[in-house]
Amino acid sequence: MQKQTLLKHWKDQNLFQEKYLQAFKKVKRENFILKNYQNEAYEDIPLPIGFNQTISQPSTVMIMTQTLEPEVNSKILEIGTGSGYQAALLSLLSPKGKIFTTEIIQELAEFAKSNLKEYENVQVLNIDGSKGYKEESPFDRIIFTCAIPKIENFILEQLRDPGILIAPIGDKISQEMIKITKKDLQLKKENLGYFAFVPLKGKYGFK
Ligand code: SAH
Question: Which residue, of 28, 29, 79, 206, is most buried by count of CB atoms within 10 Å of its CB?
Answer without folding.
Answer: 79
